[in-house]
Specification:
mainly beta, Ribosomal Protein L24e, Chain: T, three-stranded antiparallel β-sheet, two-stranded antiparallel ribbon, 5 strands, ribosomal protein
Length: 62
């Protein structure tokens, strides 16, 4: 599932609009990575978006 375990960012829905102004449904998915993190001193695997990784909201397990 495309959802971040830290910030709960998930899919967004909207409309794709063509040059002739026809509208069809489309979706935007967040950039999710499955990584090992340290949570309360224990390593675990989590789905984290790259924005949370870049802003150091989690500690990566090596």
């Amino acid at each position: 599932m495309a959802k971040c375990d830290i910030c709960s960012k998930d899919m967004l829905f909207g409309l794709k609009v063509s040059h002739s102004n026809r509208k069809t449904n489309r979706s935007w998915k967040p950039n999710i990575r499955k990584i090992r993190i340290i949570d309360n001193g224990t390593p675990k695997t989590a789905n984290i978006c790259t924005r949370c990784l870049r802003s150091n909201k989690v500690t990566r397990a090596i």
